[in-house]
Fold this protein.
Amino acid sequence: MKKYLSILLALVMMFSLAAMTPAVVSAEEQQTVGIAMPTKSLERWNRDGTYLKDEFEAEGFKVELTYSDNDVPQQNNDIDNLIASEVDLLIVAAIDGEALNRTLGDAKEAGIPVIAYDRLIMNTDAISYYVSFDNYTVGKLQGEYVVEALGLEEAEDVVYNIEFTAGDPADNNARFFFNGAFDTLEPYIESGILNVVSGQTEFEQVATAAWSTDTALARMQNILASFYSDGTVLDVALCSNDSTALGVAQAITSDYAGDNAPIITGQDGDIANLRNIVDGIQTMTVYKNVANQAVVTLELGKLILAGEEPAEDFVDGLPIEVAYDTETYDNGTGIIPSYLLVPTTITADNLEELVETGLYEWEDDYLVSTAE
Ligand code: GAL
């Protein structure tokens, strides 16, 4: 009897070990994932690229990762090279969502499935799936923070002055961020409780090419000089992300004469902006756990690479809150099935939540990334 038990135990151990380790495949059988990130100059994409590469390699896939310096021709060239190297899956965070349809048409021709990563890619039927965050909610959280912080719901006989700084017009996300915030605040603009002193309320007026910190800085300096140099108080600078918030904060620090600290919003939890939140310069950021975004992309990619059709609810088994959406993201050729993670509001009061992700740690009074 003892002999049979030891054989049974050995068999159980063998199968459970096999289940834990990724299947060892020959170099010929090993599948390759091509990952195209927009730039290293915007902090978050360095993390996205690292997390994605680590996740797929840990599962036994070969990874080719490119960064294209926010240069659109360069990104087309980089993706062309990934197609030429016959990758089995493409994961693309577009610099310009309107500028990849020829290149990704070649990917479709070559039978390479494409996941649009974080930013929707437009006017091409080569996109199989979209993995991002609920981008409208990112903006809504920024607007809701302002409503809450100023008590706008109860406000009477008071006027707060606000300026908007949106993102890159080439980035499909940017309009979702702006609309989420503007739709939340528009009732208060219409009632006169919020006043956009510069009058700049259209996306095209407040957009920031390439999400550039310097461009956001120069534009806010111009607004301050034109509309606030007479002592007009600025109560809110609503910025769609942290790289633009950094520029706006620099402009306010150097050129704003008021003795109040305007509310400044952001997105991404960039290290410099987290410092500004600790120092009371920036008021909030909308945090998106891109490590989780990489896990969702990995699980989706594995199903695609196995030739399977991901079930709508395949994300339900993940320890990550993800919504399956087939209504919001039409890329011009039809709705792209989307997996949307959930953003969260971070202020000086809940920075510990970032530490709890394991992706940040305290270094004296400030947070640094554990990945560095
Ligand atoms: C957006 C992205 C944001 C924002 C911006 C700059 O598409 O979703 O996280 O920071 O690009 O990278």
User: Anything to note?
Assistant: Residues 32-133+289-341 form a domain with the Rossmann fold fold (CATH 3.40.50.2300).
